[in-house]
Known about the structure:
The complex is a heterodimer. Chain A is mainly α.
Amino acid sequence: MLKDITLGQYFPxxxxxxxxxxxxxLILVIVYIVALFSAxxxxxxxxxxxxxxxxxxxxxxxxxxxxxxxxxxxxxxxLTGILNLFYTDGRVLVxxxxxxxxxxxxxxxxxxxxxxxxxxxxxxxxxxxxxxxALTDGLENLLGxxxxxxxxxxxxxxxxxxxxxxxxxLIEETDKIMSAQxxxxxxxxxxxxxxxxxxxxxxxxxxxxxxxxxxxxxxIAMECRCYQGGKGRTRMRQLRYASRxxxxxxxxxxMLVMVFVLRGIQIV
Amino acid sequence: MEETTLTPILQTKNLTHTYGxxxxxxxxxxxxxxxxxxxxxxxxxxxxxxxxxSTLIQHLxxxxxPTSGQVLFNGEDIWQNKEFTRQIRFKVGLVFQYPEYQLFxxxxxxxxxxxxxNMGLSPEEIDRRVRQAAGFVGLDASVLEVSPFDLSGGxxxxxxxxxxxxxxxxxxxxxxxxxxxxxxxxxxxxxxxRNYQKAQNATIIMVSHSMEEIASNVDKLAVLNHGxxxxxxxxxxxxxxxxxxxxxxxxxPQVTNVLLxxxxxxxxxxxxxxxxxxAKEVLxxxxxxxxxx
Lengths: 268, 293
């Protein structure tokens, strides 16, 4: 059950997408999101979707994996769809009691749902194809200028890296603790809301303790290797843009421009 | 009554469990595994990492559902209905690896009583069980009101084991109960387990990586390899297949190794001893033999 959560997980591979500079991927994700939120017509949505599909295709990430990762978010997606469906004014199609479905409602629900799905899938692609270390390297590099205004960029990047790294570990740990408590007859599936909330205590307490223990051990391990923050730290793997990055930027920007052009046409 | 003594207390039939079905990571952890445990026995399970030990034991108390095949408790399918599966968890107690990480209550007493409380027992019965379980694992009554997090690692382990024992399971399964303990702690935990077996006439299944521990405790030993039971016999029999064990990434007890080496060096000696005591006997006999010769 818990193993289905793939958020923040990295699937190693050796495709062009995997080899892209993490900075390129981060910027492209932003470009992608901007394009997605600027898209107004089905055609521009299609364009963004195409960009995603091509990326998925090249990266050899199984579409099934992405769908599985979306599972925990189904409720949010469904809720957005339903709210849009019922609360949009316009030409009434069906009316039952206080609920009415409008043509505009259907359209905006479809747009919102596909927007969320594309948004999630797109950001998944970043974490699926980029190792947490590369990701934080890229982030730190991109945010580098902020160091001048005393933003602790390195520390933030390190924190993010560690957080990402520990998501799978904590999920595994939760699974283990749940099994252990189930073996003692704990019941997480029945009872009212109060009983269920109470049933979480035997999981949360050990989980927090183990998280603190891990944090402690990690801190010691880092100190043993003389870690003392970002200052004067050099890198084994320097980030360098390659020609494939330029191509990727080109394609991403082309998509963005086309989305804007389509938007312009529609407004006119 | 006649029948229950004849049917194994636990049995698996064609048990298969596939992890990550339908994903690229799909693999069979255990495959068509048949295994049975006689009532009152002390069974050992060995196998290298990834041989399916943990998957198997989690099937025995219904924590994992078989992909195909059956798990029978006293001849009854444990998955016949939801309530029965839950009851099985109380009858087949499972102590996980490093069980001290599952402690959560404010006091040792409360933690041990978690299982019995879930069984819906009366407060008096819970109290009796908690005290008895604490006794089995050698916890002093004064420790009961202490927070489990203030205890030493070994003590925590005992509390966690007591938490399962307090449910008074007919079968007690332990996954490496002595991992990470010092030698004295190891021996005393093993003794606690033996005490429980004797007092409750319980069946014990113990997973271990220590051949010495297995050799000196179990009646029967199952060797798991690639998700199947490769051998299932008395330790004496199993340890005569030293080469096969080594090929499976396992080992024989150190003393057996010594005897095997002696044999290799040309000494005609019985190599079936697997505990220090037995080896001592064998060696003394050999010494006598040599003196007379």
